[in-house]
Write a structure and sequence with these properties.
The chain is α+β, with helices and mostly antiparallel strands. The chain has six helices and 14 strands. It has two domains: about 110 residues, no CATH class; about 35 residues, no CATH class.
């Protein structure tokens, strides 16, 4: 609905809401929040759902092509399960719980993995890295394995979150791959003025 003044008189008229929005409270056209989502009119009213060509996974909508590629290159269903090996119970005892299906991983893994991998979306990469952190860096968990795989193949600077080599070797390898070299000097501020150099 819009309100206009014409010749000192106010008129109110209804307009059609733009595609992807619906008439909500306050006479406003409301947008369906979230990537790949839109409002659709159903018998039950207006519902926010995935657009055509998108699949609902957890609380996210992922493009069908991205999801199919993700399923072919990762273990999406296993990523939703987190292994808790030792947990302190409410009475203070150390107990073994085992595998638990996690709502957090169910809602966020697929969207984060697809967004980081397919669209180089920094926020998605951060979510994926944080999912790995939540597993306490369990390199057998799909969130860590997939993130590290992306970091190894990255041409866009996805940072490592775990390192298996020494810092010196990592710097040398990283610089060599980029065709660079680095000399770092450390200067002693005493009278002897000795200095040391590290060459990478």
């Amino acid at each position: 609905m819009i309100q206009k003044e014409t010749n000192n008189a106010w008129t109110i008229s209804c307009i059609t809401c733009p595609a992807g929005t619906y008439p909500g409270e306050g006479w406003e056209c409301k947008k369906c929040n979230g990537y790949g989502r839109e409002y659709k009119q159903t018998a039950a009213g207006w519902l926010c759902g995935c657009k055509t060509g998108f699949k609902e996974e957890g609380q996210s909508c992922i493009a069908d092509a991205d999801f199919n590629d993700l399923v072919a290159n990762s273990q999406v269903s296993q990523a939703k399960v987190v292994q808790f090996t030792e947990v302190i119970s409410t009475n203070g005892e150390l107990v073994q719980i085992g595998n638990v299906k996690s709502d957090v991983f169910n809602n966020h893994f697929a969207a984060a993995a697809a967004g980081c991998w397919k669209h180089n979306d920094r926020k998605s990469c951060q979510v994926l890295a944080n999912l790995c952190v939540l597993t306490l860096y369990d390199m057998n968990h799909e969130s860590c394995r997939f993130y590290n795989d992306l970091a190894e193949k990255s041409q866009n600077g996805i940072p490592y979150i775990t390192y298996t080599e020494s810092a010196t070797n990592l710097i040398k390898t990283s610089l060599k791959n980029k065709g660079l070299s680095l000399t770092v000097g450390f200067y002693d501020d005493t009278a002897s003025k000795r200095s040391q150099y590290l060459n990478f």
